Amino acid sequence: MDATEDADLKLQRASNSLLFDLEHSLSRVLRTRKHDSSAREVHHWVRETDMHRVCSLLEPFQEDPQLLDTHLKSLIPPLVVAYLESLRTTAKPKPNERKAHIPLSHVICRILNLLCKIRGEKVIKGFLNNEPRYLEPILNEFELGRNFVREDDDTLTQSIIPWTERYVLLLWLSHLMLAPFPLASMSAIRSSQETSTAIGIDLPPEVPEITLRVLAICVNGLQSASKERGAAANLLVRLCVRPDMQQLGLLKMLVDWSLSFFSRLSAEDLPDIHQCLGVLTFLSGLVTSATNDEIGPSLPAIYRSCQNILSQESLTFVKSSAVARKLVIKTLRTILVHCLKAGSSSKGLDTTTVLEETIDFLLGVLADGDTPVRYAASKALSLVVMKLEIEMAGDVVEAILGSFNENVYWQGSQRNLSGVNPLQWHGLTLTLSHLLYRRAISTTQLPDILNALLLALTFEQRSATGGSIGTSVRDAACFGIWALSRRYSTKDLLDVEMASVRAYQHQKALTVPQVLAIELLAVASLDPAGNIRRGSSAALQELIGRHPNTIEEGIPLVQIVDYHAVGLRHRAMCEVAIKAGKLHRLYWEALFENLLGWRGTGSLDANSRSFAARAVGRLSTQQDASGVRRMADLVYNNLSELKPREVEERQGLVMALSTLVEQATSPERPSGHLEFDRSASSEMIDLTYLWKLFDNKLEERSFMSPALRPEFTASSICCFLGSMAAMTAIANIDLSGSTVPTEEIVRLLNLCLSRHEESVLEATPHAARNVIKLLGMIAPTTRDELVSGWLLKLENEASYNGRRCAGHAIALGAAYSLLSDSHISQPTSDQTRIIKTLTFRCTTAVAIEARTVALKALEILLKSFRDPTAQTTMVEGIRRQIASALHIALNDYTVTERGDVGSLVRLEALQTTGEAWTTGLLNGSGLDEHLHADVLRLSLERLDKIRGRAALVLEKGSHEHLLNAVPGADDGVSSYDYFAKALKVLQPSTPYAITEAMLLGFISSAGMASESVVQNSRAALLDAVDALPTCRSSVEQEEYTLLDVADCFMDLFKKSIDNERILLPLLEVIAFLFDMQVFHRLTSTSFNFRALLSYIQKAHFKSTHMQKLSFALDIYRGLGTIPATRADTISKVTSMLLHPFPKIRITAAETLWVLTHEDRLKMQDWSLPSKNLKSVVGGIKSRVTTIEAG
User: Fold this and answer.
1) Whole-prediction pTM value?
2) Which end of the chain is more exposed for a tag (fewer CB within 10 A), N or C?
């Protein structure tokens, strides 16, 4: 969850515009305005695209449904009114509208279904019209199903989803069942025999017709696999609990039917599981909705039926469904609540037995493998405990707390939770949270509850594959602490003895609110799961708000640990945690301790470990020298306790040491410290003793064996070597002694350089540069031998393939500026070899990956001259070599089976060129104009990523002719304005190489790019050439003309006639300019159209390239209208009527007809074999020749 911006913040900012568009779109979807009337009538049919647009505007609100609340009253009533109006219309659609349109009634139901999905059906149902007069129309609409009727020659369109409409109508009918009038007053009484036989339920002899119709659709709906099943069960419950239906005995009959349904089931009959779930949903809803007087006589039978589902082997297939178990839990919970209310008067059920059996069952299913079942069980236990007497409720809570000790192993004073069941812990923690939320726990039990919640808040287990499986437990713990803060008073929390809180029993000066605040801060800042960080933030806000003046720096703390601020893990760890640590030492110590645990340097992913190490370094800026040394010692001790296989933890801790050392030597280290640390001083922080980390040598297999994830070890050791070497070089210590393990440094650095992963390569420059600097101070001979070894590896021909020796190339680039001899101004032999090796590896003699690495090394080499400790300058010969290598790389268009892999080289070359222009090191290399021309060309080429990078680099250039024509990437690199600004280069004073490069890049975008780029670039080109004069009016006049552009095109054509990469887009652009009548302006000038014709013919001579042949014919269509080339062009096109490719023959015939309007061309099938067309072509040729001669 580490994006640049939180999705929910984006939604909040965009919600107003989304809601405005939604209301406008709904208005267009629902109603239309007649030209002769101001009244707006409902549509009969709606376009699919309009419906999908409304749905797309609603779907983002699933992330934050409450944003819709204030707008529901303006969104849903118009939908309801329009639907009711549509029921009264009988207009038929036009036949041609049937395929592309959807009935309005179905569209409204789809939108209402989506609203139910977002906001919940209980909320949406309240906006539906509940006037009894609409019961009959809605029921008729459901029974007719007119939107789903298929004709013989028609099929149901995929945009029609029948169950959504039935679901919404069932919800509406259940809402209408609240009508206070007897159903007999709204419909006639009729015999129930036919319906009773059809649905298999014994019914009273005479029943209102509406009742029979509703029963039929409900029983059918109970078999559905969609949300329709739940809506049908809810409607059936609403029907049978009506007073008039109870008087008819319908309630008892339906209960008997549902119970007999399960008694008749057996696994051999292959029963429908969806029907079983439908009946269970009905029973559960009935027990919940009916009063004890209404459902009491049936409770024993329902209870026995639920027990049979759980225990009988024939009903195992029902119990195997998580939905069924959830419904059984809900039913048993409600039965037990009914029994507790009735007390000893409960008929047919022993309350004590039911209580014991139900609680025992609920405690067991707290470890169920399905989350919805655990949620249902925890909620059921909390509701039951609320109804119990205080003593008995305490026994249940003790049983729950006792379950926390199952399979827990003690290691000294620490609990080892690796053997516990995380699913059971989730259920137990969730149950405690529900009990706290309902304040069903006595304050005398709060110490044990706090111990359990604090333990659950730090719960973490790793699966066999290394994934986290403790997230749900911590989430439930956050809910529990939030509930504790909300439901219990400040006095209740302050009365808890700290000695009873195991995690803080030695800190008796603290209070429970303060302890909870510390734990929540650590979770909100460091937890790997975003929902838990936000849940902890919400709990912390509730805690501080409900219990003021009990927490140190409470208000500033809650302002820092904001709900949105902790959404991104990088921000939570590296910003929120650091700010919170400044508030009080308690917070600092808790954060530092947790950063060294599984939430920090022991995180699952490498990025999080890197964030944790960075946070440790930033926390050290709030300590004095002794404090930083204590931090380093603690990290070192943790490192020494690691086992060899704990590679991820080692990486995190070593990187933490690296950041500690970096911060200790940073010139930006703040001089002021925490207010609570008055002993802070500005003394030098010396951590060079950490070289002892290498006393226990790392084996080579830690850098080689794939099983040990060597990239993690290599990247962390690289960072540590660089930081320690930098500190040692500036520390005021005796470097001649044996405190610096030179041999081990060289060995580890070489092992790190053997890795080519990106994380290692990123750390290599810092490590190589600082190690070379340190070795130059204490062991110059070792330094020279090390650099020579790197050069030998790169000069070996076997290293030309792939990314082999990539680390060595990067290291040489970083070390270059430190290898000079202060006594001479010329580069040393090692520096000369480095430049020669790296520039050679930028050519096509090595693999693509090796080229990109070499260019990256050159970029690092150029950056190293920014270092004030750089001991050399760049002589002209070196500058020219680097500029020449960049020129070659900027023109790398290598194409393999992977595609344009040369683009990877060009991208890296652009980055290096930008660095060169920033530092100004290549000025005076003699290739400045060539480099600017290359970058200008790339800023206009067809690949978006290349254009974007080149546009940014071009802004760093200094060529005088580009200052007013640099496109810039502010408005995007695909816009009309971008290309139009680039064409300002067309000036008479601009060097020809720059103009040619610009047009070459422009041809790439205008010829073969994506559609939008082609459109914008061509529009800009057309407007630019239209504004140019055709030719100079006098020799002395200085102005750029269309003739100059055309001549440049001709030069490009001549140079690239064998290069299809340039030739194909050039042909297409020339054809486009002919179609736009641009070249026709040159007929009165000296432009050589016959030379153009000759180049075109030569370009496709004996070619089998279909695209090239098609482009040539497009140009012939233009050349045929030029008097100087018309005859030869027509002759050439006529000869292509016998081309071997049928598609080319057809295109040639079309082109010739455009030029001559010869009717015989239209009457011939040009897809026939060439030999069958010879006589026809001969006749056409003589006919055309005669016409042209006449």
Assistant:
1) 0.83
2) C
